[in-house]
Amino acid sequence: MNTVIKKADEKMTKSVGHLETEFSEVRAGRANPSVLDKVKVDYYGSPTPVNQLASVSITEARTLTIQPWDKTLLKAIEKAIQVSDIGINPQNDGTVIRMVFPPLTEERRKEIVKEIAKMGEETKVAVRSIRREAMDKIKTMKKNGEITEDDLKHGEKKIQDKTDSHIKTIDSMTEKKQKQIMEI
């Protein structure tokens, strides 16, 4: 039974970690190197992440600077950013690429806040689904005579406690990210 609870907790933790990654990729009007995480550049025939080909740094609050280690990659990096869904046009000056993030409009901020709430809700649904699976497993264990009624109740309580803890974390992460977007 403990392995069921442990596996459920690990899956819930992964779901929360995934949400954290998604939140870091939300374009919030300020420069954030993680917006380039999904951008791949064709480097000698293999798609390679930008951060493995260049130094990515924040030079000002809304400016991201990309300095490739190999200057011949400037055009390839620029093209990869243009075809990505980032929505920012890179500026190539021959040595570095600059990405200037425009300030967000009030309307766009509200849209992003809604997207964040949706991401948080989807993650809570995933966590509850993991809870349901774990509960079903320990009920099956009880039915098969592997655990007692007391063990079942104890296991259900532990799973519910873990679920509540993760839901609380998701809520606080969502609220924090929404506040961050509205303050920009």
Explained architecture:
This protein has 184 residues and is an alpha+beta fold. The protein is built from 4 helices and 6 strands; from the N terminus they run H-E-E-E-E-H-E-E-H-H. Strands 3-4-6-5 form a 4-stranded antiparallel β-sheet, with helices on one face. A two-stranded antiparallel ribbon has the order 1-2. A hairpin with a 4-residue loop joins strand 5 and strand 6. The radius of gyration is 22 Å and the shape is elongated.
Provide a short characterization of the protein structure:
A hairpin with a 4-residue loop joins strand 5 (91-92) and strand 6 (97-100). With 184 residues, the protein is of the alpha+beta class. It has helices at residues 2-24, 74-83, 106-143, 149-183, and strands at residues 40-43, 46-49, 54-60, 63-68, 91-92, 97-100.
